[in-house]
Amino acid sequence: MNLYRVASEIVEAGRSWQPIALAASVIITGLLFRVLPVFAHHPFGGETPDTALTAFLSGLGHPVIGLDHLAFVIATGLVAVVMGRGLLVPIAVVIASMVGTGIHLISLDLPVPELVISASVLVFGSLLAMKTLPSNGIVVTLAALAGIFHGHAYGEAIFGAEMGPLVAYLLGFAVIQLAIAVVAFWLGGALLQPATESSGMALRFAGFVICGVGGTFLATLIVDTLLPA
């Protein structure tokens, strides 16, 4: 049986549940804000990995347990479907995130990194929600710039590690980011088979949900900055 057809049938059956899914997304986002803040940038509770295995697992975990990172990576995979240039966007993000980690490791700071990371989720959710994308060059440039900031945040968990764990960590977060983006890309492609207005709306709906995640992170960050506890 054609896997694209199976995936499309599953998505079609789930469209009637979109309002419930949106509400659930908001609730889950709120819960994750309460449960995960301490671990968002430290998969092993703040300890620098000292072996290749723990570093690799930390690299796998960082883009997943940080909801802002996860939403951004998913968005890049879905935007890549709409752009029609294969996995160019996710690959640009993975390479740029390694550059960002390198910038962190040589103790160079980036301006307002958390603000840019949150804004990147909102921007890529907005791109997905739009009927048409900007030029491919603009999208890839935005993805690469955002990837540098996400990678800079990833670097916090491995700062001070030896070369072996460092390489394993880089490999871990590169693999998991690409894997998540590929799954999102495949599901998005299945959703657009055949390409109809309703299938396009489903992708735009996903964009609105990702916008909600990015907007929530951004608003929370601004409030915490203006009204510190």
Automatic annotation (TrEMBL):
Record has Repressor as a keyword: no
Top-level division of the source organism's lineage: Bacteria
Keywords associated with the record: Membrane, Transmembrane, Transmembrane helix
InterPro entries hit by this protein: HupE_UreJ
Transmembrane segments: 20-40, 60-80, 87-106, 112-130, 137-154, 166-189, 201-223
Record protein name field: Urease accessory protein UreJ
Organism of origin: Halomicronema hongdechloris C2206
Lineage, top ranks: Bacteria, Bacillati, Cyanobacteriota, Cyanophyceae, Nodosilineales
